[in-house]
Amino acid sequence: MSEDPTTPVSDSPFRSEPSARDEAPQFVLPLVVRIEKAEPPARTDALETAARAVLTILADERSAGAGEWAGAMRDWQDARIRKVVRRARGAEWRRAEALPGITVTGKSAEVRVFPPVPLDGWPKDLARLQVSGTDLDDPEPPVDADPAAPVLWLNPDLGMSAGKAMAQAGHAAQLAWWELSDEERAAWHDAGFPLAVRTADPARWSGVTGAGLPLVRDAGFTEIAPGSCTVVADHPALRREPHGPGRAASTRSE
Q1: How far is Cα 95 from Cα 253, in angstroms, rounded to an integer?
Q2: Less crowded by CB within 10 Å, the N or C end of the chain?
Q3: How far is residue 27's CA from residue 88's CA, in Å, rounded to a whole number?
């Protein structure tokens, strides 16, 4: 499977129950966030930059057709859609930048995304990087999200490290990407993938999870219980019309 939004829920790569996808060779999409001791990025900016990094590699011409990353991208999407975020600084970051991939820059964050690798076949310069305990803070509360732009809503009842939340935001962005038409994808790409990541107000969380928008349920590999709903992808093109059924949106889960 590449990017087919018609994939049935029962065969979704985003679900906690065992499925045929578990029998396929497992791959992972590596993301590395640059965290220098003196100037760590803001948490929200890191989450947004990670989501845009996932979208960037999905849209890259090397990921499609006969592109050099296309085979790895297909193998990854035929199994579980795993993403792992590691952190680097100094020489570690410079070694990571020397590997094939794409660096996406936010206001304060830098995230490099790499083509998928086998679950047990990480390049040594990435395998040695720390994965656990990646956490960040926002120096100031994030401003309200623009309602005209895509918003990835985080579950207000879950505590996730920054690394975990970055991976979950990437999952949600990918689900939104799969649901869009070719024209909508092109428009989002051409605009530079604008998006916001925000924690939903507890009072509105049940509303966004029940709005027919793409949502992510965690497989339970790390930090939180399997089946937990972590993020809802609220892209304007996927919202239901207030007086009509609108587009049937995905509820695939991870």
Answers
A1: 34
A2: N
A3: 21
Q: CB neighbours of 66 closer than 8 A, spacing ≥ 6?
A: none
Closest C-alpha among 33, 114, 123, 12 to residue 72: 114
- Three-class SS state of 10: helix
* Assigned token pair, 223: 């930090």
What's the Cα-to-Cα distance from 180 to each of 5, 56, 92, 185, 186, rounded to whole Å? 8, 15, 36, 6, 9
Spacing of C-alpha 193 from chain mean position? 13
Residues facing 2 on adjacent strands = none
Residue (of 252, 56, 235, 233) closest to 150 by Cα position: 235
Alpha-carbon gap, residue 181 to 152, rounded angstroms: 19
